[in-house]
Automatic annotation (TrEMBL), chains A, B:
It catalyses: 5 isopentenyl diphosphate + (2E,6E)-farnesyl diphosphate = all-trans-octaprenyl diphosphate + 5 diphosphate. This is Octaprenyl diphosphate synthase. The lineage of its organism: Bacteria, Pseudomonadati, Pseudomonadota, Alphaproteobacteria, Hyphomicrobiales. The keyword Ribonucleoprotein does not apply. Supplies octaprenyl diphosphate, the precursor for the side chain of the isoprenoid quinones ubiquinone and menaquinone. GO terms for biological process: isoprenoid biosynthetic process. Keywords: Magnesium, Metal-binding, Transferase.
């Protein structure tokens, strides 16, 4: 079930790659991975079991790569970026563990969610443990500015999740309200992951702002594409079932657009399905049909493309380098996932 | 249902008070309370609702008082102790929110647990938010040593909770194993709350070690008395139902002692009730009867008294002062709660 969206002229489908970034940071990333395994360790056997289940299930580790690459691009020569990158990944992993409990998800990255194997309790507590370990690593690095940025992100992410919880069942959610949610729950960590690069390299206001903006807008684009894929990818690619958001009554941008553009009877359908959770046979297919007829998925991808442009322009003033090229290409890679 | 324990000779029932400590720190505590209300604020309405439900339900705020008093006792004259004290209370509140989800508790401090009113989801996420805000306040204070101590405590607390989860259904838990759990889940925060006092006052190794030891042992005593009260207080005093630990299958020290001292048939009773969760009419009364016949509650209080002594001796070398007297009296106050 692929998406039907028009490609930018002259742009080949899937031409952007993440591999250049992966290769540039691979030596550093090996150290991050070692650190992650070591800091997820505990004499309490359940902690490494739960943590490694998620850690080894192979996300792309995009967020820590942003930290590593941003630090190198800014000329950093020390070791602290490895710890900060591992902290960023732990914050992300903790969020996933807590999200699965909140969303009552059954799958995560194509495997059973940790809560299905060890229970909600372990997911809550191991998430707390990883968050604590993340802060310990940040403290070891000793940069109060980096600590400020990352601890602020931690609070903002939780705030965004609560915002989503409050908005979750309201079809009246506007596009702006939805953007405020994903700005907090997704983009804040991308932003912080990128900004700690220039911070640890000792650079100033302009570079911090550039990386902050790069990360924020990349995060927005990333989340919007995720939302689009939820109504159009395949389970194998996504690591979650198509229609998860629909079944969980999540109001994402595709739905916001289709609802606002729809007829009275279509709005009644969305209210029944997402506000009241009355979902029957064929409703997912009907939802996808409505999304298509209103170009809601295409336009969600278009919005993502907009934020992608802002993200790329944020890095534009920086001197040319392989890291810069790789970070720019990752923006396109995230967006082209939707094709 | 009172406890029958022998009182120390010459010691009047309930003679130790928390009021001297409360009065000494009251001006600082007002500022902590203001800060708590302000930092629990958010444009996302559910966050202050949930947070204030718990914050306003009036725990004694013992942990932040330790921070305030320790800092003053160490001659600190600045403002940072107020932020650190608020951070400590937020860490504690976050833990309570997550604990209620993990334990499936219905009551907390005599009121409905937040999860009963707003759901598990909000409890997980608002806990995460408060933890993030706690770290932001610590970062504002700018002491890397204080950050180190508190972030380590955050990880250790979560580790202790997981340890408890793993041990929760094993009657074979030894006293030492149980102590390892409460050392992590309860005593670590008392310890950190006290230790950041000398840290922020710029004192050295000896004072830090003294307050760390004071806090750790006070925390152990506090938790053991809590465990004893769960089988012997009244619901109104406790803010939770008598027998909560029993119904949740929690293995606490009174039970560890009664099990090890019991007959084969008594052990079979404990295994049925706590390991298999088969609890019927009259089982709580039977459990309390067994605890009494083996002096398990008295001896739990005796163990608490032991840690109380260690706690008081840890502060002994410090110069005399009203703060020192108040901190010493709080140790006895915590233990005398059991009478």
């Amino acid at each position: 079930m692929g998406l039907v969206v028009s490609l930018d002229e002259g742009k080949k489908k899937g031409s952007a790659k993440i591999e250049p970034l992966v290769e540039l940071v691979s030596a550093d990333m090996n150290r991050v991975n070692e650190l992650i395994l070591s800091k997820a360790g505990s004499d309490v056997a359940m902690i490494p079991e739960v943590a490694n289940h998620l850690i080894s299930s192979g996300g792309k580790r995009l967020r820590p790569m942003l930290t590593l690459s941003a630090a190198r691009l800014c000329g950093y020569r020390g070791d602290g970026h490895v710890k900060l990158a591992a902290s960023v990944e732990f914050m992300h992993t903790a969020t996933l563990l807590h999200d699965d409990v909140v969303d009552e998800s059954e799958l995560r990255r194509g495997k059973l969610a940790a809560r299905m194997l060890w229970g909600n309790q372990a997911s809550v507590l191991v998430g707390d443990f990883l968050l604590g370990q993340a802060f310990r690593m940040m403290v070891e690095v000793g940069s109060l500015d980096a600590l400020d940025v990352l601890s602020t992100a931690a609070a903002v992410i939780a705030e965004g999740e609560v915002m989503q919880l409050s908005a979750a069942k309201h079809m009246s959610t506007t596009e702006d309200e939805y953007l405020a949610v994903i700005r907090a729950k997704t983009a804040a960590l991308f932003s912080a992951a990128a900004e700690v690069g220039p911070i640890i390299a000792g650079l100033g206001r302009a570079e911090r702002a550039a990386f902050r903006s790069y990360g924020t807008n990349l995060g927005l684009a990333f989340q919007l594409i995720d939302d689009a894929l939820d109504y159009g990818g395949s389970s194998a690619e996504l690591g979650k079932k198509v229609g998860d958001d629909f079944r969980e009554g999540k109001i994402t941008l595709p739905v916001v657009l289709a609802y606002r553009r729809g007829s009275e009877s279509e709005r009644a359908f969305w209210q029944r399905a997402l506000e009241r959770g009355e979902i029957g046979e064929g409703d997912l297919e009907k939802a996808i049909g409505l999304l298509r007829s209103h170009h809601a998925i295409e336009d969600t991808v278009e919005r993502a493309r907009h934020f992608g442009s802002v993200s790329r322009d944020a890095l534009a003033p920086l001197p040319e380098s392989p890291h810069k090229d790789a970070l720019l290409e990752v923006v396109d890679f995230c967006i082209e996932r939707a094709y």
